[in-house]
Amino acid sequence: MCGIVGYIGARPAVPVIMDGLRRLEYRGYDSAGIALGGADTGLSIRRASGKLRNLESSLSLNPLQGDYGIGHTRWATHGRPSETNAHPHRDCTGSLVVVHNGIVENYCELQDQLKAKGHFFLTETDTEIIAHLIEQEYLDLRERNDGDAAPSLEKAVSQAVKKLTGAFAIGVISTDDPGKLVAARSGPPAVVGFGDGEYFLASDVPGILQYTRDIVFLQDGDVAVLTRSGISFSDFHGKPLKRSPQHITWDPIQAEKNGYAHFMLKEIYEQPRAVRDTLRGRISAASGHIELPGLDLSHDEIVHAERILIASCGTSWHAGLVGKFLLERMVRIPVEVDYASEFRYRRPIMRSRDIGLLISQSGETADTLAAQLEMIAGDIPTLSICNVVDAALTRKARGSITTNAGPEIGVASTKAFTAQIAALLTLSLYFAQCRKTMPQEAVQSILRELEVLPKAMEEALRTSAPVCARLAKIFSNATDVLFLGRGIHYPIALEGALKLKEISYIHAEGYPAGEMKHGPNALIDETLPVVCLATKDGDDPDSVLKYEKTLSNIQEVTARGGRVIAIVVEGDTAVSSLVEHTITIPRASEALLPILETVPLQLLAYFIAVEKGCDVDQPRNLAKSVTVE
């Protein structure tokens, strides 16, 4: 889950690489480093522990020169965060350096083999193994001569990566083959970009979007060779490949803060746009038509499906739980929701008429990809809901729905989550139409609400932000917070708790409101804030029943001295008469309330974290994309 940036071209390489690393620092920030090559300078390296600013300080004191190079921001998996363990890593001779995102699972075995051949190691990382392995391949190729007295860097890299077990995206430069940058991918993401006489490498699009929008997403088993004259592609066996760039439409300014104090706040306020873009072109309330061209499931497969298996991680798992409520209610089909990290370890039972559904912001989450492979091995079609076009998850899926939320920089996911729920709503309505489990007028009624949902989200942002800012001053010293919800609102309670713990480091727990008597009541005293999702759709009897039961739970809390913050729909006076604090959102149908409820919970977590002085965008011990297990 580290950040990689590489550049080769006419301009000075340091500013380009450092600018890219700044845009990718959300992928890892416990150390950073840069290596440059040049005709006159050879190979030069700077590394620093801690955040990127420490490397910037080092470079200001000891500048580097070069017209090609690689840089890295690290999120530690092997070896503690330190300058020694920071990337890039050298081989024994110091003529070759590697940056790496991923995990080499057989590094101990490889290390023993390399030590037996005279290699010595200076770090605690698995990445250093790759540098030495490429060095050894150079030596072996020269010894064999193999028709090539001066082996190319890409040939040595291709030979080396075939011996690696695990997941990796790497960038390599060497003085033995100067003026060249070689990249290889098996698992974690890597992209290359085409400019005017200059070429780029990155582990994520925002790292190079300032310089080019013409991008190739490397596929598993790809090797890319970047020189001043262009980019060539081959597989790990040296077979040439044709890869055509696609034009990315994201505006680079989307990856900037645009005047907001933090990326997270900017992305919270981008949610109406993200949901609007996710729905655009897919729904029409006037015609009642839903269009999902990327789904690639036949009508018969949808009609005869017997079960949906959802697997995802973190915030996306909460979206999957919302999807369970939507699909079971609208489509009348059984749905199971698993943490992707647990799915393959329980030997899941899959049947021929099951459909797999994977949900991920990045589409590169290792556990979610592993769950997808388990489903594919079980011979069931898989669908993906993903925010990144051509991510690994979407390439392996039969069909996909792209959420169109745009780049999400803050580690704590916000706009990706609400866009995922919007996609799940669309999918549920589409399946309901195919299976005829909802009257068409009911489908069109929800479609009409979906079309105006972004405006309702804007209203929720406008009205709840000042309230949440005020409540943050009151509750920022809390040590524990309980979040309660019933039915489809329970996953939102889980998500609200996750957001608070992620960025404020306050222990928070989401719980089904109906389970209060089975344990959580013991926690309640006058110091415990309890956030209750007490919204209702007045036209839905089931929603009203859940609301009335939740009122009873609120009374249980207040009777024991708990301090209640209730999320309610506008015009609700029953709850406000019972509780200390309320946050109001617009009225909506039961199926749309989860999206609107999410907005104030995100804002509450954000303002509490700011009040506590926490690093909102880069919370400790977390990284944005978990591309290793």
UniProtKB/TrEMBL annotation:
The active site is at residues 2, 624. Keywords: Aminotransferase, Cytoplasm, Glutamine amidotransferase, Repeat, Transferase. It is an enzyme of class 2 (transferase). Gene3D superfamilies: Glucose-6-phosphate isomerase like protein, domain 1 (3.40.50.10490), Glutamine Phosphoribosylpyrophosphate, subunit 1, domain 1 (3.60.20.10). InterPro entries: GATase_2_dom, GFAT, GFAT_N, GlmS/AgaS_SIS, GlmS/FrlB_SIS, Ntn_hydrolases_N, SIS_dom, SIS_dom_sf. Its main location: cytoplasm. It holds the Pfam family GATase_6. Residues 298-437, 471-619 form the SIS domain. It is found in: Cytoplasm. It comes from the Bacteria. It catalyses: D-fructose 6-phosphate + L-glutamine = D-glucosamine 6-phosphate + L-glutamate. GO terms for molecular function: carbohydrate derivative binding; glutamine-fructose-6-phosphate transaminase (isomerizing) activity. Its EC number is 2.6.1.16. GO terms for biological process: amino sugar biosynthetic process; carbohydrate metabolic process; fructose 6-phosphate metabolic process; protein N-linked glycosylation; UDP-N-acetylglucosamine metabolic process. GO terms for cellular component: cytosol. Residues 2-229 form the Glutamine amidotransferase type-2 domain. Homodimer. Catalyzes the first step in hexosamine metabolism, converting fructose-6P into glucosamine-6P using glutamine as a nitrogen source. This is Glutamine--fructose-6-phosphate aminotransferase [isomerizing]. The gene is glmS.
